[in-house]
Amino acid sequence: MIITGDALIGGKAVKGTGAGVRAYNPALGQVIEPEFRTVDASQIDQACRLADEAFDAYRALSDDKRATFLETIGEQIMALGDVLVERVMEETSLPRARVEGERGRTVGQLKLFANLLREGSWHDVRFDKALPDRTPPRPDLRMRMIGLGPVAVFAASNFPLAFSVAGGDTASALAAGCPVVLKAHFAHPGTSELVGRAVVKAVEICGLPAGVFSLLTGVGNELGIELVRHPAIKAVGFTGSRGGGMALVAAAAARPVPIPVYAEMSSINPVFLLPEALKNRAEDIATGFAASLTMGVGQLCTNPGLLLAIDGPDLQRFTAAASQALVGGAACSMLSPGIAGNFARGVNQLAEHADVTTLALAPQAEGKGAPALFVSSAASFLSQHALQEEIFGPASLVVVCKDVAELRQVAEKLEGQLTATLMMDEGDLEAAQSLLPVLERKVGRILANGYPTGVEVCSAMVHGGPFPSTSDGRSTSVGTGAITRFLRPVCYQNLSQALLPEVLRDNGSATWLRREGELTRN
């Protein structure tokens, strides 16, 4: 498949009229053809209006037909073969194994939501039958969930497949019955076009309205703000920086009709090294930590950027082993020059900070990221917010505490996070119990004796957390729960069987339903 540099609007390839952008090969330091032009306001409007026109017909499809559509997208992505894999590698410097794994995850997410649609529980059907003899009488009441409407999705820089054109936000929105208008990421526009064309092909194969999916190309904050402000858009999915996410939140809130923004933004993912665990296996924990920190050159939203432990010889064993594992690490190409530049600035700021000591600092190189490990005291961490800021890359800070009480004090002061990890052995149970209530308030996923960089795509996964890890801590962007972001409830009172949606009829297709508050399976 030839990459043309086109946007895809209503099933048709169109050229933007604004500023141009070319992809960049970070490993070779070269721009990549072709040029992608930024879409203009009229093209954004066209994509949004077509999505709005497609909404009622698309959400009225049976669960099985929408499931088949999601599966067809996956099939079309796989049909791209090495053309897609090699373009991703060229635009990101990610190794083949990572790209192929991410492609599998992307297709797996689509299948996960297809299975959810066929299983049917997402409708959340509720029946409360009429009680005409009661005083006062109760009407017949039935409820189901429906899609919000067209969703604007912003592709992520660090996951060019799994959090991008056909990634989790797109898959969950399409599963909910919501057309998607996708803003491609400027760092991997060729990858975006290839996957976008696969989605458009699936739309054609399944005979769906062309407005179910559009892909917008280009650069500049104005493009994203214009998209979020469009009255046809009813929700937003975003993965990126805190500044970018908050700009979209502000734009959405300022609309005449405000809409929800589900933005995943920043997290330092604290790891609590509890005393017995450090005593028994400090070196093993250090080895696993180093591998987790450097995975993907640290460009993962669940990267363990903060370690908290009680001072003593066991912590010194850990820091010595971790430093040894990291200091010889090679500098590797990062996803883009912008990400590499921000990482270098963050590392330099910590290295030069008066209250921070450098434990390990592998040789740095322009455009690349090399491992770095620092240490500071709990008192400094608590008094200086700058030490809590995310450094997107393979860098982490050890915070040394006096005792479990100070560990808990630091935990109380943490911002909202995607994850928190408890490295613990049996003797650490009491300390873990004291931390757990705090962590439940602070994070979306709590791990024991693992590393947060593995995000399983399954029903129970939560990839979200209190602000600022996400703009709405009640949501997840991974797992079947992600569909609820793009749904809302509708209640039907005293409607005849002929007018009721099929899933709400007395002998309807609801697999799971609540009758008088009791969950049952048909």
From TrEMBL:
Residue ranges of domain Aldehyde dehydrogenase in the record: 21-465
Pfam family of the protein (one): Aldedh
Key words, A-Z: Oxidoreductase
Keyword Oxidoreductase appears in the UniProt entry: yes
PANTHER family: ALDEHYDE DEHYDROGENASE-RELATED (PTHR43353:SF3), SUCCINATE-SEMIALDEHYDE DEHYDROGENASE, MITOCHONDRIAL (PTHR43353)
The protein, known as: Aldehyde dehydrogenase family protein
Organism of derivation: Duganella margarita
Lineage: Bacteria, Pseudomonadati, Pseudomonadota, Betaproteobacteria, Burkholderiales
